[in-house]
Backbone:
């Protein structure tokens, strides 16, 4: 008797990006070509736990193809972290039970550091329980903090958005500086690592170009040194543009965003480094300022996504399926940089046990000695990641994205599963 | 004896836009074709007062052509308002003196409401003093608040940026809402009029699409009604996206941004409606939120500018010169909408005395009865303004803009002019 062809389970995890659906597109298109049915978890791993599966085989090919151009997570993502085997035993068992009920032989998890840890744990458990399951982690994170992969899909597009925005704003600021606003502060994501802040540095090709100052979470915020630098910029260039990571901290180790501000309800306002930095400058140096907080705009901006990032996101989804069919398991797919000029890359893989709980930090030689900008080495690393454009179709002046039908798979398990709070 | 051919003076005024340089491009290219030399004011009208003129005739044609793609104000703009004839007598006289010294017979002022008032006053004074001067105002303002013109160059591109961003963010928010962030608030410019906030409404083509709620400065912020609407959206759509104008006020007439927040220096933080609205929701309804403040990003975003806006900005500069050469004076050029579907427009003009101190408000029938969205009438008005794309050239993954050489014209007047504080 021939074994029934196994189905695949795919889920998106954590904060979404403008290209995570591109990975889904590559994965589903490749699985279809190989006759593998893909069930997606509705709202990520929650879908596996609650047996809330989406049958992507019922989705028209055109919709799947359009995922390439659609930001956000088309099947829903979630912030739901599985702990170790003891603490989350019932959850791991439930996942395998659901997989078993739906003849799932392939598990693809598309997320950041925590997700790869989850894949690894499920892989281990499936071996212990004798349930044959091919487990593959696919990187996705704008934070760019996964090890062993040259970059993480999602990051290059944020980098392109931030560098583009900073360059544009620089032209605006310079026009106004003689009689009005002299300071502009842009707050960007990246609480623990300065990759996104660093990417703003790509906008400056010559000395004096914007941004003038980058504030990295890796560098202690030294108020005095910072203010001296701002003042110097204004005197030299007539204005000063600053890109601040949301995660900068002062000498006492306190997040600047926590220094805060007491709001109308008597609560400390968290978040909002940009206004704090701007007001500090106004208070100490007297310069007129503007500030912006990009927040979700930066990670959703599919209209200005990087073609390189899109190509890599697609290739990761595609290759993940190919690896799975070759019998590789318990791996994370990676991007391997083969050369810098011209930038050449390929897809590779790494065993998950090596990946789990390793964080990729900004190398210290990526930050200039004064702590306020990126070095040539950083520029060389980042620049290839923002190359090329591949915008969505515009109709009526606006980008056209795809909303999937997302039909449910009929449930097969009687017991409901209660999610932990 | 044949009179010496007159030169033209062109200045940019007030907050710049992503297409004000496109108007400069249309104006200078047309002047060149007609043998008129254009002097630009360095930093706007300040350049006229201080005799700091830029000789645009020395700028290579390629640079002028590239102005079409470059955001900000290429000659510098300023916030410097001339008052009435009595209060600012010395300034008006100085301007005419500088014009006389440089054989200037055409005055083009590219700005918002105040600028057209200035043009009008200079026109009057030149007549009184018997100095022949052709005076033409050219609209520019993202606020879209000038009368008699269908729209103002700069606005359509902000509208396209905001609608695009809101649509993108909507896809992001929906992915996360099941287990995480349910609220997203985007703060947009427009302190007195809700045109920019309204433009976000273009992103929603069907009920339930983003943004779910728009907060207009024209509508008193009713906390209770607002919170009920937010809660309803979350229950109905799983999440709620809100676009808030920076200028919204409560029942007491106080700007929400002034309700503020006491910062680390003990000062009231102004600005930042988005965090205030987001925290109000968290406080009263308990939903997790994200917020963004677009600030300068929205008006500098040349990469996603509206082709319609760009075409109109260029045509205004071009036609301003043509009108001047036809002998029209003391006018503001306007955009005239000839039909809606298809959108057809032409350039027209209006006498400045009719323009001065008239503000174009949002018609009340552009806002839905509940005060939280735009009507079909508004959609029909706004939609044509964001049609088409005309991105700059991208190189190394980033948009390429032009920095002009901006050579100075030799000064001819001995006395220096001291600017008022």
Residues:
């Amino acid at each position: 008797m021939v074994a029934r062809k196994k189905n695949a389970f795919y889920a998106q995890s954590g904060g979404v990006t403008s290209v995570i659906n591109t990975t889904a597109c590559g994965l589903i298109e490749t699985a279809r070509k190989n006759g593998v049915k893909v069930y997606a978890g509705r709202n990520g791993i929650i879908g596996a736990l609650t047996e809330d599966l989406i049958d992507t085989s019922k989705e028209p090919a055109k919709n799947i193809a359009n995922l390439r151009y659609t930001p956000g997570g088309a099947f829903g993502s979630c912030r739901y972290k599985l702990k170790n085997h003891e603490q989350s035993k019932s959850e791991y068992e439930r996942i395998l039970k659901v997989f078993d009920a739906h003849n799932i032989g392939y598990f693809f998890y598309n997320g950041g550091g925590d997700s790869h840890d989850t894949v690894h744990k499920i892989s281990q458990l499936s071996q212990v329980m004798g349930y044959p399951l091919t487990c593959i982690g696919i990187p996705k994170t704008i934070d760019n903090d996964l090890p062993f992969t040259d970059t993480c899909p999602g990051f290059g597009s944020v980098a392109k958005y931030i560098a583009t925005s900073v360059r544009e704003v620089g032209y605006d600021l310079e026009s106004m500086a003689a009689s009005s606003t002299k300071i502009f502060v842009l707050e960007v994501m990246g609480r623990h690592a300065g990759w996104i802040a660093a990417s703003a540095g790509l906008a400056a090709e010559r000395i004096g170009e914007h941004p003038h100052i980058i504030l990295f979470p890796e560098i202690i915020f030294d108020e005095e040194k910072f203010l001296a630098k701002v003042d110097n910029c204004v005197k030299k260039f007539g204005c000063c543009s600053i890109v601040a990571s949301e995660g900068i901290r002062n000498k006492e180790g306190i997040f600047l965003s926590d220094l805060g501000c007491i709001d109308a309800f008597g609560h400390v306002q968290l978040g909002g480094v940009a206004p704090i930095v701007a007001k500090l400058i106004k208070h100490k140096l007297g310069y007129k300022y503007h500030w912006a907080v990009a927040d979700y705009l930066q990670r959703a901006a599919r209209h200005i996504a990087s073609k390189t990032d899109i190509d890599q996101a697609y290739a990761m989804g595609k290759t993940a399926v190919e690896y799975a069919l070759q019998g590789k398991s318990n791996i994370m797919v990676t991007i391997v940089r083969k050369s810098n000029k011209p930038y050449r890359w390929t897809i590779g893989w790494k065993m998950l046990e090596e990946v789990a709980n390793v964080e990729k930090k900004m190398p210290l030689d990526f930050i200039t000695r004064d702590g306020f900008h990126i070095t040539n080495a950083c520029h060389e690393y980042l620049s290839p990641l923002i190359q090329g454009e591949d915008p969505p179709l515009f109709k009526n002046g606006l980008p056209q994205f795809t909303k999937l039908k997302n039909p449910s798979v009929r449930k097969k398990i009687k017991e409901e599963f209660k999610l932990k709070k």
In short: The longest helix of chain A spans residues 155-176.
